[in-house]
Predict the structure.
Amino acid sequence: MKKLLLLAAFCVLLSSKGFSQGFMKKLSQKLEFGIKAGGNYSDFGDAGFSTDPLAGFHAGATIAFKVTNNFLIQEEFLYSQQGAKVLAGPLGSQEIKLSYVNVPILLKYRTNFGLFVEAGPQVSIKVNEDIAGFQDADFAKKIDFGVAGGIGFQSKMGLGIGARYIYGIEKVMENPSAVLGEFKNNNIQASIFYRF
């Protein structure tokens, strides 16, 4: 009886090990990891003052889950420099520089040829701000929300290019004022990436 129980326990152990290895192998076939970097061209929408776009960059990592061969759910973790050039108004003439960690969660459709379209929400966590006259106080909110949409191409070897527009849906300022307006982040990104 003891030998029979030991044999049964050994069989269960082998089958669970086989199951876990099979599960992990299937999961790894469904995941795509990558890195990406590129340029930003950002500005404020609905601002109560005159602005011009500000150039910056973004860089980070991506992970995608393949629901099917063509349909994916992609999440990214990107450091992103955003803001705007203020031309005139209550803030004077200066560059408002805001740095965020952007986390978009995108639904992506990719053709067999490699062309893709993507769209979804994005949450951004402020990590730094550089605004004259606001050293001791918070100018921008710690959390920002937006909606992203983009297009691009990914080659069979994993190298690709993409362009994306992020429309801000949350007011930038921690304490909005009637003078400055309830302006929002808007950002155009052009990227190169590599998927493993």
Q: What stands out?
A: The chain has a mean pLDDT of 87. The helical segments are 2-30.
